[in-house]
Amino acid sequence: xxxxxxxxxxxxxxxxxxxxxxxxxxxxPLPQPGRxxxxxxxxxxxxxxxxxxxxxxxxxxxxxxxxxxxxxxxTENLKSWIVCHPSALDMFDEIINASKxxxxxxxxxxxxxxxxIVDDPDKAFMTSEMREAVRGTAKYFPTAIVSGRCRxxxxxxxxxxxxxxxxxxxxxxxxxxxxxxxxxxxxxxxxCQPAREFLPMIDEVYKSLxxxxxxxxxxxxxxxxxxLSVHFRRVEEKRWTELAEQVKSVxxxxxxxxxxxxxxxxxxxxxxxxxxxxxxxxxxxxxxxxNSNDVLPIYIGDDRTDEDAFKVLRDRGQGFGILxxxxxxxxxxxxxxxxxxxxxxxxxxxxxxxxxxxxxxxxRK
Length: 365
Ligand SMILES: O=P(O)(O)OC[C@H]1O[C@H](O[C@H]2O[C@H](CO)[C@@H](O)[C@H](O)[C@H]2O)[C@H](O)[C@@H](O)[C@@H]1O
Hints:
Elements: E1 6-9, E2 42-45, H1 50-65, H2 75-84, H3 92-98, E3 103-108, H4 128-140, E4 143-146, H5 151-158, E5 164-167, E6 172-174, E7 191-192, H6 199-213, E8 220-223, E9 228-231, H7 240-251, E10 257-262, E11 265-270, H8 276-286, E12 295-301, H9 307-316, E13 320-324, E14 335-337, H10 340-364
Parallel strand pairs: 3-4, 3-12, 4-5, 12-13, 13-14
Antiparallel strand pairs: 1-2, 5-6, 6-7, 8-9, 9-11, 10-11
Bound molecules: ligand L263DTV3.
Ligand L263DTV3 is lined by residues 109-112, 117-119, 121, 124, 147-149, 222, 224, 229, 231, 233, 262-265, 267, 303, 305.
């Protein structure tokens, strides 16, 4: 079916079951009937075929679900979820025990992990207390920020030159110029930009998206250098389908780009096999820990895109993924933290533990 209006249902509503087979590439929150009551059951799509309409619907549903509002009936679900994904604060001693004889390496997502989610992406500042916690962490452990934002923008928020930065979902990686000698005398800037050839295409698509979406109040297109974010957060929900259609009308001309979703955001990015998981592996290798048992990576993130990194850790059987979430989500992470404040507590505990164990070692000498 092409070039005609397609009526498609919410996958949970029971309409049009032929379209239920599409599932997002990454896991989402546990399906809970009745949870999406504000969502219209049917959406009307113009000028796109049914398969495409199903894909857009799935992306939008998945996007809604990644920023859910907690209802009292969900408290029970949360309790049972926590049993499988206990708080990293409660499991702190287990994490420390697992790190015996190993170098802890810390990976931190930015939005929703170090800074709270806010309406205006340009105002997602981290607190100075959080900055001190990250600074302390980097003093004792190699520490990387892994973000969907472009590297320069996330650096402007974090403002710590001693960190590794992987911007654009890991497609732009840089090590601190004066890197610390963790393992192999790494004092050079490591640079990895696997999507370089896409830069002109991304710029072109950015301009088209700005033009196409300018009539939709609240829509915002963010240029993250190797990828783009189209923000839905300040758009009236009844216009989300229209916005998604506009995005699709641009990206369908670029088969080498793909669409993924995050927290009230659609991301346009190159279809290359590179993601936050690959960035984590690249950074471990750069630090001299490829195929090594002497390392314990800890990755903390809140977003769908962080699942790629959680999965790498799970597949390697190494380290811990920690999901920042207040509601139950299907995840490859081992542990959870509820919000950025808890992330800060966790980082401070890591720092305190390391400081006191170094002190004890010094006193024994
Ligand atoms: O990988 P991250 O560091 O988590 O970046 C993912 C996206 O984060 C930002 O958007 C999200 O946070 C905004 C500010 O709180 C919020 O307004 C938006 O709704 C969220 O999706 C950032 O603006 C995007 O470019 C990143 O891709």
